[in-house]
Amino acid sequence: MQLSDFDYPLPPELIAQHPARERTASRLLHLDGRTGVLEDLRFPDIERLIAPRDVLVVNDTRVVKARLHGRKDSGGEVEVLVERVLDAHRALVQARASKPLKPGRRIAFAPGVEAEMIARHDDFFELRFDDEVLGVMERHGEVPLPPYIAHAADAGDESRYQTVYARNPGAVAAPTAGLHFDERLLDALRAKGVTVARLTLHVGAGTFQPVRMDDLSKHVMHEEWYSVPQATVDAVEKARAAKGRVIAVGTTALRALESAAAKGPLRAGTGETRLFITPGYRFQVVDRLVTNFHLPRSTLLMLVSAFAGFENIRRAYAHAVAGRYRFFSYGDAMLLERSQ
Asked: Which pLDDT value is given to residue 223?
């Protein structure tokens, strides 16, 4: 398939700029990938669609304040977006400046808070911070809202662009399907007998990078770190034994599970994934997917098309546009049943 197959018209006013007043106040479009049937719901309706024997797998990554503003030792301003933290003092970043950074160039983010550019890796720069990277980001950084959200991050975004179960810092973009769940809904699911299991995938800024090649076979995904604990593997196996379903909350949870099962049965462990899912992919673990609406021509739109069926997704997105659903990170949600 070609990149142009994954385009669709989207009126700009449907791109959600702010979250719903309450986390669960969003709409939910339910798509049965086997029949193609669409159902317009409210997000709290998901409670009745999840059975006691099912397992809900969430990504507990925590968004860090990855956008930093600084000044080069040459005097020019620079905006840095941390892609990933490599160790206590080194990070891989995107940098916006009047001229590209060169090795040896130093950047000051605050008095006495500096980093040096030590290497370039394609579109990314490696910085070595004098202080610990995570501490610098927490004290001097901003929440890195996606490029399609026009306003600067404020205190409200610091709480709402974060899931209620966020635990492990390292993401520079939120696993946004999880933003629709609040503690009350999760408690209600647990009381019903649903298992809520965790894993971690640190979402990188590369998730917003465009696919530049029309021939999808030539696209290389950005690398992301993930960890699947043994307790989650056990929860999946228990659900399978009880004829329950594995429900991934977000494409990041799905990619972590499928990556951990790429060489056979699902196994606990950590790793790096570049898994690029397009139509024709055979899913090994996930039966249902909770997800938001994704950008045209994006790898995430390709993933959901592989999961629920290409034509089904085309119809569902046209339905959502006509029905004035809210799109992208702060928008409405979908519950997808796997097409095969």
From this structure: 87
Note the pLDDT tens digit of each residue in 74-125.
Answer: 999 999 999 888 899 999 999 999 888 999 999 999 999 999 999 999 889 9
Please indicate, yes or no, whether residues 97 and 234 belong to a single structural domain of this protein: no
What pTM did the predictor assign?
0.94
Which residue carries 């993401």 as its tokens? 171
Answer whether residue 208 shows pLDDT above 90. no
Alpha-carbon gap, residue 129 to 136, rounded angstroms? 8
Whether residue 85 is found in the same domain as residue 220: no
Number of Cβ atoms within 10 Å of the Cβ of 90: 16
What domain count does the chain have? 2
Residues 29 and 94 in one domain: no
Q: Which one, of 333, 290, 294, lies nearest residue 24 by Cα?
A: 333
- The CA distance from 297 to 307, in Å, is 16
Q: Yes or no: say if 327 and 13 are a contact pair by the CB < 8 Å rule.
A: no
Residues 167 and 300 in one domain: yes
DSSP string, 47-75: HHHS-TT-EEEEE-EEE---EEEEEETTS
Instruction: Name the residue range of residue 233's domain.
Output: 3-63+156-337
DSSP type of residue 300: H
Q: Do 214 and 2 touch, CB atoms closer than 8 A?
A: yes
Residue 196 lies in a domain: yes
Flag whether 146 is in a domain: no
Residue-wise pLDDT tens digits, 20-46: 999 999 999 999 999 999 999 999 999
